[in-house]
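step=encode ok
step=design start
structure_in=
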């Protein structure tokens, strides 16, 4: 979910996406994003995702398990040496 926050003087303005944005949001709700790719979870459990504004479920996502966490940690560990040498500008772009 993307919220746009703009600080104008002492007033903070928050732009909330219009109803139905969930249908247009590009995300693979059936898999986990690990090591730069979408992969199936090793778990057969799911988590319902609720829009807090409408209180309606708009997706379900895999509930990762310890094996999924280990895969993600291994990928992060392998990527860290190269990533740590990148500039701040590159990281935030």
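sequence_out=
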């Amino acid at each position: 979910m993307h919220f746009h926050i703009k600080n104008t003087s002492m007033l903070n303005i928050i732009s909330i996406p219009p109803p139905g944005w969930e249908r247009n949001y590009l995300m693979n709700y059936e898999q986990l994003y690990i090591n730069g790719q979408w992969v199936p979870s090793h778990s057969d459990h799911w988590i319902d995702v609720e829009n807090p504004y409408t209180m309606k479920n708009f997706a379900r996502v895999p509930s990762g398990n310890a094996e999924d966490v280990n895969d993600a940690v291994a990928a992060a560990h392998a990527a860290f040496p190269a990533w740590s040498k990148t500039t701040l500008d590159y990281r935030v772009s």
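step=design ok
step=annotate ok -> Residues 28-92 form one domain.
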